[in-house]
Amino acid sequence: MLHFNRCPHLKQIAQKCFPSVHVRTDKHVQLFLSRTFALAEFRKSWHSTHSLVGDKNIILMGPPGAGKTTVGRIIGQKLGCCVIDVDDDILEKTWNMSVSEKLQDVGNEQFLEEEGKAVLNFSASGSVISLTGSNPMHDASMWHLKKNGIIVYLDVPLIDLVSCLKFMKVDRIVGQNAGTSMKDLLTFRRQYYKKWYDTRVFCESGASPEEVADKVLNAVKRYQDVDSETFISTRHNWPEDCEQKVSTKFFSEAVIEGLASDGGLFVPEKEFPKLNCREWKSLVGATYIERAQILLEKCIHPADIPAARLGEMIETAYGENFACSKIAPVRHLSGNQFILELFHGPTGSFKDLSLQLLPHLFAHCIPPSCNYMILVATSGDTGSAVLNGFSRINKNHKQRIAVATFFPENGVSDFQKAQIIGSQKENGWAVGVKSDFDFCQTAIKRIFKDSDFTGFLIMEHGTILSSANSINWGRLLPQVVYHASAYLDLVSQGFISFGSPVDVCIPTGNFGNILAAVYAKMMGIPIRKFICASNQNHVLTDFIKTGHYDLRERKITPTFSPSIDILKASNLERHLHMMANKDGGLMTKLFNQLEEQQHFQIDKMLVEKLQQDFVADWCSERECLAAIHSTYSTSGYILDPHTAVAKVVADRMQDKTCPVIVASTAHYSKFAPAIMQALKIKEINHTSSSQLYLLSSYNALPPPHEALLERMKQQEKMEYQVCAADVDVLKNHVEKLIQNQFI
């Protein structure tokens, strides 16, 4: 327990971390520091005011044939610094024989040990060091090098490595035994390269050594420029005085805080990183995990999450918890329509693609002395996905991170409700609210903006509130990967060549999924049109067509596609902010007007800009069921109601000149009554469990979702709380949950 009256400087720190909290020095409080302070020393330690390198070494790591020696020499010439090749300058001089002779003399295991010892006896500063391909297999020597160096991983596509080694007539490398192919050994070694690197350079096919050297220098510069990648609120007003400091956040802070203190959403201050055509082509043959690692490393600074640690998180997130090894496969439906299957995760919806990763990002970013209560509003799928994701973090993190998910008591399907309630764990609870999703979402935003309440929770209970809805940048960012991956899969399967445009059609409620596709385009994926598909709650369709966002005299209509039964699309603010050249004042005006007057109108120029990329339409309930029926009849494929909404709109809006990728956001098993009605199955009054098993007996595509079937086998009824539609009631409930979990 720390006391402000004993440490007056801590009051200033707390006020800097939590400017909206009124700190009193006459009472005992616990101190919870912002991630900014936790990162400060790390950020300072890597900054050099003298040169790009300073006294640090640039250490080039990668497999044989990656070009480490050649690239190292080019970098040395550019920087005017010493270049050290471990093979030539350390090993051969130490042993007085060639590396190949030493390997033949002592064998694999002894070679690795003697190689490691030679490196341990070596030291340098301000140099470029080219490692051997096997150095990373010796832990002690790598720790020795890492103390005074930035390790750059030259990541070369496997097919290029094998071709290069064949051209160089290299038929054996360290660790290769009889019967082991070169390809298998290179694949095996990747685990060691991934373990040690600080920053990665993706060496796409055809890149020259000079181009790779420039990439290395840019990667090192980015690594050292720890304050270069920041986030601002969509409601941030740019100061007229250029000298005035702009209020920004780092990635880790944006993830922790979820919502900006002014009510806006966090967005990158700079543009999205962009891959060139050759880099994208080199990812065509990559796995989903490999694609995710490359793309997310470019979007998350290693000062926030070290690249190697991020890679581990991604491998954990997209592992055996997904039923399909491709994670988000693309299936040809008919003609030029393709289905992006986003439902192979543990809870059967597209939310798993981000909510299996976000908990690991969040747990890494929070300060070690804080407790966090994550508040989530769900229109159906988010609730179970959040509870499932945060139940998978380790035991220590569970003691400091808890989740409360609020769902409309009568606004989700019976299966979704059972799934949300059944997903409650020791650190996660489901709370039904006697209202609709829009109330749940608005109530949570009001709780976040209530500085008296949030300050009270910090000071009295030592707990900070955060969010895992798509208003949280850490939740939205991973969704970019599957849109990019879908396009690469179409190229891989031979349906298109890279560079050919595609349309995407997405059932849209909160605008997050379709916005992630916009970000994928900004990174270089050639998406032509974004087709926004609405159900009978078609406020977004109307807005895209008119520029008028109008909620007056509008109430949510329950539909067969409850996850898009939404009227207030939170992520639209991010897109409008980008279109309006980051005009935070305009965003404040528009969304305050929406809150107070229930509508706003954007000007003609912004409407035209919006309509350059977006088209939109909506689907009736009758059309939704008809699409499910006709698709099953013609192809044997069962669409869930949300995907059916997108299919109807795609049929109506696409002009047939290029392929369209339809996002399938949930497995049909979650909406069995609607599916049975669409397929005209008479046994419609069965229990959810029997409906699910009946549908699984149809041998349709996609196959039954085993995790959902297992969920229905659990007969135990779990208790949950139900609250009135009152913000104060929700706040009281949040406080009680915090007291029970953390106090």
Give a short account of the largest sheet: 6 strands, mixed
Q: If you compute it from the alpha carbons, what radius of gyration comes out, rounded to the nearest whole angstrom?
A: 27 Å
Strand content: 5-15%
Structural class: alpha/beta
How many helices? The count is: 34
Question: What's the total count of β strands?
Answer: 20
Ranges with pLDDT <50 over ≥5 residues? 1-50
Provide the CATH topology of the domain at 277-346 and 474-688.
Rossmann fold
User: Mean of residue pLDDT?
Assistant: 89
Helix content: 40-55%
Spatial order of the strands forming the largest sheet: 8-9-19-14-15-18
CATH second-level architecture of the domain at 277-346 and 474-688: 3-Layer(aba) Sandwich
The separation of the N and C termini measures 14 Å
Shape descriptor = globular
Protein name: Threonine synthase like 1
Domain Threonine synthase N-terminal: 247-318
Modified residues (N6-(pyridoxal phosphate)lysine): 351
Family: Belongs to the threonine synthase family.
How would you portray this structure in words?
The chain has about 750 residues and is of the alpha/beta class. Among the domains are: about 55-225, P-loop containing nucleotide triphosphate hydrolases (Rossmann fold, 3-Layer(aba) Sandwich), CATH 3.40.50.300; about 275-345 and about 475-690, Rossmann fold (3-Layer(aba) Sandwich). Helices cover about 45% and strands about 15% of the residues. It contains 34 helices and 20 strands. The strands form five sheets. A six-stranded mixed β-sheet has the order 8-9-19-14-15-18, sandwiched between helices. A five-stranded parallel β-sheet has the order 2-3-1-4-5, sandwiched between helices. Strand 14, helix 24 (about 510-520) and strand 15 (about 525-535) form a beta-alpha-beta unit.
